[in-house]
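Look over this today:
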Amino acid sequence: MKRLLSACVLFAGLGWLPAGMYAENCAGLPTHFSGGEFPTGNFFSNFNNSCYLIPLSTGNGSGGQEGDLNSVYNKLYFNINSPNAPLQTLPPYQLIIMGEFPNSRYFSIALYDNHSAFTQNLTDVNIVPLTSNDINPYEPGVAFVSGQQYVVPIDLGGTPGTLETGCKMNGYNVAVNAMDGTERHEYINWNLDPAFFQQGTPYKTHEVDTPEHSNPNQAGTVLIRSYLDLTAMTSATQPHVIVRDVASGCAYPAAYINSLANVVTTNSNTGNVWQNQQQVQEHNVYANWQSTQCWGAIQSSEMQWLRGDEYTPGANPDSSYILAYVPAGLAQQLLNNNEFLRLRFRVPTTPPTPCTNGCSRSGNEQIRYVSVSFQAVGGNTLASIPDSCPLNPLTACTPMVQDPNGYVTLVVGVGEPQPSQVTPANGYTWLDLSQVANYLQLNQIAIRNILPASTFECAGQVVPYKVGEATSAAAGLMGLYSPVIDFQTASQLPTQTSPVTGSSTCAIFPYGPPATTSPTNQVCSVLSTPPIAITGVTTQCATPGNYAVVEQSQPPISILGNGFGSFPLGLPYTGDSNFLEIAEENWSAGTPGATCTVTVGEWSDTEISLVANVNENGVCPMAAGDKLTVTVWNPQTLASTAFTTTVAAQNGPRKP
């Protein structure tokens, strides 16, 4: 059962270092712009200095976040017009995130709304460098070079006016990286689940935007992630933000922004107040209420793996989280029995990065990053073991010892001395949890899979949310890439490791939905497939039962019904497939050869939620009065059903 965590707990528990301040005389700088303050230069020559730069806070996966200890996080809270913040008097403004590409395995910039839910994400390879002279070291075949800059603007509303000459960004790659902080998350809408409101507790409806964008996001968080980072943190390499006036394009001094105390902050106590904590808590309640399901259980493993909740405050959209819940008191039991925890599994191929010898990723790796983390009560991470470690890491790093085919045998001790045969030379990875405080409170093991290749179908993304990985007594959706866990004494551990054996197939789904489990019923089974049918299609659903498809760009669409099966291509997924089509008389989206794609965020036997990448710049136009036909194929049975609806008009123009 999910532990209920508020965003306050999650974001406050990261072990953030306070953002530094600069001792420089920046007095007398303008805080209002009438048109003549900056007649020369450009935005960067005038404002890329310590009078305007506000550093983001820095932390890692320690604390109560269930994080990865091989990570570096930079974080910033922002307020647009939160009712929980002082009245906003500043004219419309924009956040300009500036930084250097780090020397790391993986890097991303993610945006979260005031529900602490993901809205947009820029993955490293998709971030365009600031100038044509800068390079992106995450592109295949490109080696890391220090000092390569990027800029990401975050729009928070408002309309540009006449930009001052010295405040323009002409010739720089900025707008191409733009993100919209006024957008709300598209999925995890309990308004689509009438049973949730029938429990007797007066839950609030889920807060959503409208097709007219009349209920935009009011506050949020920027979170920059970097894994296996070799970049020494300095004032130059630390990401910063500049607050920019939308009308003139000019920047506000950092001291002025900090004095207002209602624009941006790195203080979690202040920033979390700006969020909608009631909606955060109800997201947690809804996630905990949603059923846990399973098809089977791997008999050779003492613990079973399942994918975590779809909603976790601040979760990484590029990552899947596969969890094994550790029975209470197991660490003490292992110690009493002189036993060790043994995990055997296979690791997909990963890049050789980061490094300092000119290496680069090929682009043909199966996945970007894999780790196993051991977590204690309260979400505290005890240890994280990555697939590999760079040479001369900045922080202590214990890599997985892999054989030539990627097989790993990880032995975890909880107080017993390391067995003599458990050495890297014999193929073992050794971890002594007893060297970490609170190790006897071990209650969860987590696998992170970040950015699997589209050709690798054994990653955690293929497992549905809150569903067990196992599909039978001997097979699972991740094949040998899901660890088999057992308990061994020192004498039972062989001198030399050997690869784990079992079914090597992946992403083979049973022909029926998984059974629902509970604390008193842990029986897994494959249920009969109900007849496939669509009962309703809607865009934004602000109140239960209020279903309509309304014209808009990139409409969020939810499909309700039965018998949809399980989506085999992993979630979230953007592209085409053989299992879903959105069609109008002159175009289609989502199927091979279609004009436009879809982004699928949720797919269960009873609900599919997606964003149709249509109605943008004249491509796949969707207008009021159009007939829209939605067709779904069950990926396992290939049974299909279709539903036609008429597109409704907006109630007025879209608000900026």
